[in-house]
Request: fold
Amino acid sequence: MKSIKISLEMAQKVKEFVNVTQNYSFEILLKSGRYVVDAKSILGIFSLDLSQPITVEAYSDDCDELMEKLKKFEA
Reply:
């Protein structure tokens, strides 16, 4: 598992983020406080407090490519 803190303050960033995560078959979760949602779910993401940094957790040994793509969302 690898994790990174990101910021998704605008709806356009949420859409871009979901487009990136949907290309991966392994589980990717977003954690904000005590809430955990599927990173591939636009509705799930909008249920979080997007004004705060969010932690992305990717559950795969081969997620380096994903982490590189997520750097543009880094908080």
